[in-house]
């Protein structure tokens, strides 16, 4: 996410991330507090003045022009702040009304934004809200579905390299997606390069269970 003006602490980073991923509307202080500090596992709630201090710290991170105060407003909302997920969604939206070739290029651009499993490095309790079906799993499902569709379209047009690239980008987001591994296996099996197949099976064995790898190998036998 950009821009930022100072390194954020875990709680502030969670607040800014939460605002960025829910930037379709204004959020009240209570909504933000409930998401970042859920009352679970005996955790103590925080007082409103403390929460306001956290919001002030978040404003220092992104700049007041990007996170205006809630004074005179119903709540908080980021202004002119981008994120990979927002860009991804916009590219998919643009692709929906583009020509066939332009749409494919836009979807490929969206996949190139993928850098790994969503929130993989966020282990603090402040990101509990992100590890839910409506956030992390929605991102994973959307990315893997797009990778599958782009790969299918690329194969139909004879672009196996493009299909391979799309699937590997999708696997960055969900390394254990069996659908993407099946798609990738079919492409690798089209190659006469024995070393490529060898490394493919080794990679599969590192992230998939034995039964899934066995199922993939069965595709080699037809």
Can you offer a commentary on this structure?
This protein is mainly alpha-helical and 222 residues long. The chain has 2 domains: 1-81, Arc Repressor Mutant, subunit A; 133-220, Serine Threonine Protein Phosphatase 5, Tetratricopeptide repeat (Alpha Horseshoe), CATH 1.25.40.10. The chain contains 10 helices and no strands. It has helices at 10-21, 29-36, 48-62, 84-95, 100-111, 136-156, 160-173, 178-188, 194-207, 210-220. The radius of gyration is 21 Å and the shape is elongated. The mean pLDDT is 90.
Short summary of the structure?
By secondary structure, this protein is mostly helical. It has helices at residues 10-21, 29-36, 48-62, 84-95, 100-111, 136-156, 160-173, 178-188, 194-207, 210-220.
Largest sheet: none
Uncertain stretches: none
Shape: elongated
The number of domains? 2
Quantity of strands, as a count: 0
Our estimate of the beta-strand percent is under 5%
Sequence-ordered SSE layout with sheet pairings:
Blueprint: H1 10-21, H2 29-36, H3 48-62, H4 84-95, H5 100-111, H6 136-156, H7 160-173, H8 178-188, H9 194-207, H10 210-220
